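Illustration: alpha-L-fucosidase.
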Amino acid sequence: MKILRRLSILALIAILSVNTSFAQSKNVKKLSDDERMAWWRDAKFGMFIHWGAYSIIGGERGTKIAGGGAEWAMDKLDYTIEDYEKFPKMFNPQLFDADAWVTMAKNAGMKYIVITSKHHEGFGLWDSKVSKYDVMDTSPFKRDIIKELSDACKKQGIVFCFYYSIVDWHHPQAQGNLYPNYNISQHDDPSVVNPEFPKYYENYMKPQVGELLKNYGDVGVVWFDGDWISDYTTEMGKDLYKFIRDIQPNTIVNNRVDKGRTGMDGMNNHPGEFAGDFGTPEQEIPDTGIDSDWEACMTMNGTWGYKPDDNNWKSSQDLIEKLVDIVSKGGNFLLNIGPDGYGRFPSQSIRRLNAMGQWTKKNGEAIYGASASPYEKPKWGRYTKKDGVLYAHVFEWPKDGLLKLNKDIKFKKVTLLTNPGVELKALGTSGEVLVEVPMLAPDNPVTVVKIELAK
Ligand code: FHN
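Result:
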């Protein structure tokens, strides 16, 4: 375990070392799969950022409000390509401050950031040479957002990662508007073939992904989306995975690079047959642990892109418990922010990031580098485990001052994580293990009890 943790730190240093040219990446030492995945497995908590021209619209058109995610505004609010093009032309987020974004992620306890370089709308947030539909050529903003964010990440020791949508509602060869009988909604229909799609894949998508890998230093994760469209094939997925690893051998790629999911399932159905390094359950946490790498991505309210009408915010307590739940099942938590068209994080999101930061600052030992619980989940909360220590994360504090642990736990010493100097009395009988805890929960919203295990 200690060796793995040491490897993980080495891998993290390798990935964070500033390496801004492709020529340099070519000489990077190729890590084994376990070494390559180590920083990510330890990191546990990352920030997803959905930002694009849709962030100006906020999911609204006149009296209409897009159902679901506001990043789908183009489709949901029936914009034609020509109508929609006016939004990238207006994209001028004068309040964007990459350093401030990264600081907020870091203070929340997040270790990596995944930003939408291009979402389904097709508009790119970087200086693309294969497209004019990007922030440099189409927008008045004319600042390379990916460059600013990746630089800020490197400066602050956060791993930079990007999302890229295979679906593209703007590129003619991708979304099929060259074909009178073909439209966006037919993407899911395998009987409808867009003969132009392979050209989009080869001459546009791959070169764009290549630019993002060659021009912005080391990339922690390449996060694909839109794998469900029938025009995208498993051959393309496998080719793309190889293409990425040839450029940056130590990059991690999510499973949506290939076609291994059934519908919108998070995990691949036939592990090993498809390319991709981790599963991507979306807006859900599996009931039990899964014996492979996975990351749950989730919104704080109900939308990925900025949507002022959506006030369905999860509480900070809920988000902290979700983080613990995910870690106790061996996964990572990728928590979304949808900045507005000016470049601001919504205040509701900032409050939740702050609350999570306060909690992770005190209790990070029980999260980062922790592995799934070897015990069944208890009624009062969850367990995580690391280096011979079991951490009991108590969501519901016992009213009688007695915390009941799983009966098979062989403890050596029990303390509160935030008060290591005071040993708690613990009693193991054949039926149960009881720990005497203070009558009031010492921490909020989740108190962690540290259980050093006997060999
Ligand atoms: O359609 C997208 C959606 O807008 C969002 O980007 C999420 C994030 O995982 N992925 C897609 C749906 O699976």
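Reading the tokens back as a structure: The chain is about 30% helix and 20% strand.
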